[in-house]
Amino acid sequence: MADKGELEPLTEVQMSTQSYPPGPKGFIPGLSLLAFTRDPLGFLTNVARSYGDIAHFGYGSQSFFVLSHPDYIKDVLVTHNGNFMKGRGLQRAKRLLGEGLLTSENPLHHRQRRLAQPAFHKQRIASYASLMVDYARRHQRERWKDGQTLDVSQEMMHLTLAIVGKTLFDTDTEREADEVREALSATMVSFTRFMLPFAELLDRLPLPSTLRFRQARARLDAIIYRIIDERRKSGADRGDLLSMLIMAQDEEGDGGGMTDEQLRDEAMTIFLAGHETTANALTWTWYLLSQHPEVEKRLHEEVDAVLAGRAPTVGDLPRLRCTERVLAEAMRLYPPAWVLGRRALKDYEVGGYRVPAGSIVIMSQYVTHRDERYFPDPLRFDPERWTPEAKEARPQFSYFPFGGGPRRCIGEGFAWMEGVLVIATLAQSWRMRLVPGHPVELQPVVTLRPKHGMRMTLERRKGPADTEKR
After folding, report:
1. What residues contact 253, with CB distance under 8 A and at least 6 apart?
2. What is the pLDDT of residues 315-363, one digit of tens each?
3. Which of 77, 237, 280, 412 lies at a CB distance of 3.0 to 4.6 Å from 336, suitable for a disulfide?
4. How many CB atoms lie within 10 A of CB 90?
5. Can you give the residue range of the structural domain that contains 15?
6. In a domain, 287, yes or no
7. Does residue 406 fall inside a structural domain?
8. What's the total number of domains in the chain?
9. 3-class SS at 375?
10. What is the rounded end-to-end Cα distance, in angstroms, of the chain?
11. E strands within 41-142?
């Protein structure tokens, strides 16, 4: 690999003699795909470090290209995005998400994004700030005690689910929180099966895992359709996303609105993307802070100085720079969305190689975020990587936790605001310490989860905030 992230162009001789980039080869057909399925993080990391910024492996007639350089990633996601569609994983995720923003293709994706965009306008998102803070304060007041040991990953799931339900659907999903969490968990575990070569066949067999997935999806559907039905009958505009989607008319297109099924697909996508990813980002943040007390100390000093014991507001965000950098660094090391896949619609040239139509292009945030060319000593937790000067010195797509291009996550601004406000709110009064001996292992399903949860002990800290009065 070239130094400092610079690409080394292939010579004409190399281009003429190499039909495919280097990559793992095996005597047993499909061995690489099996290795990817069993340990995707380890496999992709090894491929990138062993074979460079563009690597290839295959299964039968299916070719996979692993791209790890920011320029190549930008080329796929931005410059030539029209030549790609979603990859195998998200195509099969339609079993759960339907044709929502995460999975749909153009022209439907263009239409749905036009209709949803106003709800994620900067001013609209800012109006959600007080609700995010209120729910975080209520969560710690009603559920947490000094010295208590709990699963922080489940706590963050509970909190972010309540926030997404209230801010985007103006409904109290806490009454169904346990059912929603269990159903989402069942669907996430089943997702790895979607990547297997014979997934379509497995989905038709009456296997226990298939039945569990169908039951979980049915439970989620029942909740979503109930909310949609209640809202349509009331006819009320509550100013949330669902109200806006119900009333939205596609003035640039056919002039129509969304069907119940389209609303269901967008709502299901928001339930997943709006709480699962943020909950995981927060969980990994608390874990990293527990392992780096000097960073935790700086975070607490900032929160105490900026807030002086009061609740944070949207106006405090520009001054909570350390808090924002802590979250950014946590998402570098443990990106909630850890891989992106795209299928080439036409032959495509990248790095001097031809990517045939139908090939799958894999780009991993987990791998690129840990590349020492852009992040020296990459396994070190260092929020100072996120000063304006440090960010400016790196290639744009060396860090892409929310994807990029026309399909960049529509809720990115929402997620950043929620993450910073929740961290600031909870850090005012609490430290969290990992339970000794608790196994910390990654579980890369749709999102990057802690496989065994995150058992931590709460320690009430003495600061300006008077928790008892909150």
Report:
1. 111, 114
2. 999 999 999 999 999 999 999 999 999 999 999 999 999 999 999 999 9
3. 280
4. 18
5. 1-97+338-386
6. no
7. no
8. 1
9. coil
10. 54
11. 54-59, 62-67, 84-86
Question: Looking at 137-151, 189-203, 423-437, which range is the least confident one?
Answer: 189-203
- What are the C-alpha distances in Å from 209 to residues 34, 37, 216, 449? 19, 17, 11, 20
Q: Where are the alpha helices (DSSP H) in 355-457?
A: 365-368, 388-392, 412-427
In a domain, 2, yes or no: yes
Predicted confidence (pLDDT) at residue 90 exceeds the cutoff of 70: no
State yes or no: pLDDT of 191 exceeds 70.
no
108 vs 15 pLDDT, higher one: 108
State the Cα–Cα distance between residues 467 and 453, nearest whole angstrom.
26
Residue 358 within a domain: yes
Q: Are strands 360-363 and 455-460 parallel, antiparallel or unpaired?
A: unpaired
Provide the whole-model pTM. 0.87
Range with the poorest average pLDDT among 27-36, 154-163, 373-382, 422-431: 27-36
Residue 287: φ, ψ to 5°: -60, -50
Going across the sheet that includes 84-86, the strands are 54-59, 62-67, 360-363, 340-344, 84-86
